[in-house]
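Notes continue from the previous slide.

Worked example: a multi-chain complex. Inputs as given:
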Amino acid sequence: MGMTMTQKILAAHAGLSEVKAGQLINCKLDMVLGNDVTTPVAINEFDKEGFKSVFDNSKISIVLDHFTPNKDIKAATLSKQCREFSTKYDIKNFYDVGDMGIEHALLPEKGIVATGECIIGADSHTCTYGALGAFSTGVGSTDMAAGMATGMAWFKVPTAIKFNITGKLNKWVSGKDVILHIIGMIGVDGALYKSMEFVGDGISNLTMDDRFAMANMAIEAGAKNGIFIVDEKTIAYQKDKVNREYTIYNPDEDAEYETTYDIDLSTIKSTVAFPHLPENTKTIDEVGEVIIDQVVIGSCTNGRLEDLQVAAEILKDKKVAKNVRCIVIPATQKIYLEAMKTGLLEIFINSGCSVSTPTCGPCLGGHMGILAAGERAVATTNRNFVGRMGHPTSEVYLASPAIAAASAITGKISDVSEVM
Amino acid sequence: MKAFGKVHKFGDNVDTDVIIPARYLNTADHKELASHCMEDIDGDFINKVKDGNIMVATENFGCGSSREHAPIAIKASGISCVIASTFARIFYRNSINTALPILECREAAEKIEAGDEVEVNFDTGIITNHTKNETYQAQPFPEFIKKIIDAGGLLNSIKSQ
């Protein structure tokens, strides 16, 4: 019987010719990732068990991105612990303040993850790398510790849902809107334990940044992983970044999918997820009047160059509304520099935005833009649970960079047509 | 292996931000994490919960982040096990890995109410509601996973091999 892309990658890494959904297997890992919040818990477990070495110091990545530059003494202590561990075990991919970026934007940019690889990360948005046609999934700190020690992880082979993508996106509509539409359609547990596999002719009409945003939010539908077919865009993206051979796994003709959804990109409208679940979506024409206090443009979902370019195109020669704080956070130093050189940062600052060094910051209510009681934010982030960005009575509306930028100008959730 | 205790009941989609808000993730200390467990939906939970109590919830429990701080906070608060209709997958995995006993059983999750006295047998998967005089059958764990839980978590089981 045929296998899905996910099943093929898992089989290859388990040393098996074939796997079936539901099977429990042990896989060799190509990369184990952690950040400043999850790595300390992993280090504590690693040390407690008495492990004295890591399996391969070139296959571990530790990126300090959540509470950095450190927001308080406790956060600084966690970063220090990560730093010391990385020095002790000579971790090759250790990224500290000054050269770090948000992990899920940084790793593909540096060629640390690639097509066909098997990656675990102690961060739920590790599913992002599925955009490259890799198997990549979020795990806890104990799995990270076990992974660092043994280079292996256990998995239950998932069943899959197929998303057959056709058509082309309309202007101002992006991958973020597609994935919000999908989560609104299937629910926050609509893909529970399953792979979300994105195939079809329309994939070639999605940029890599679109695909990263979509794969990033697979976890918000409860998925084990999200994964895209590999095409010329994927290969071109990796050409100057990945220094090793990689294997492309295509789904078999007779691969089994529990459900298939046909998604015509041209029918997707700008979409907003209302508090307090990513599935609580409305299209921009259904939103009504929602006055806001803050806009965040950034995160592992939408902090990439294209996201900033779209936001800058809309904000150019306009002003952020008086009652709104607009915070822009390029996801990596490379993106930050490019945004600077191409005049995007000047546009943001001239229009009244605050521009920050790369950090996850406000996305998870860490720092750099926390909300007070009753405040509302439009954010290009990935989650809007109660208290996500600050006070439990604050509200987060998830949207694309285009909608976020337009909303920053009007002071309420707005379509781009209202400002351009 | 068994658990026996009074129930704290929650609904659908209890997410990791509500189990342990991110503003407290700047510590890895179990006791400290426990002191903020469920804070944003039930500020009084940590005062009410007693050692051995059981948490029961409906769909998609633990959805959201991979933060292991979530099952850690629950376990350190004194909760002896969590029963839910369904679990989010990273939370489920983290619970097994950190030896927080969990069981999936929709009937039990829907019928058990706050304050009920409940007993759980992990070997048979039988859940007994002593307050309502009802029993429910959950799927016991496959051997592979049972080994991890019996060893006291993933790392213990790796070391013992």
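Summary box: The two ends of chain B are 21 Å apart (CA to CA). Residues 1 and 150 of chain B are 9 Å apart (CA to CA).
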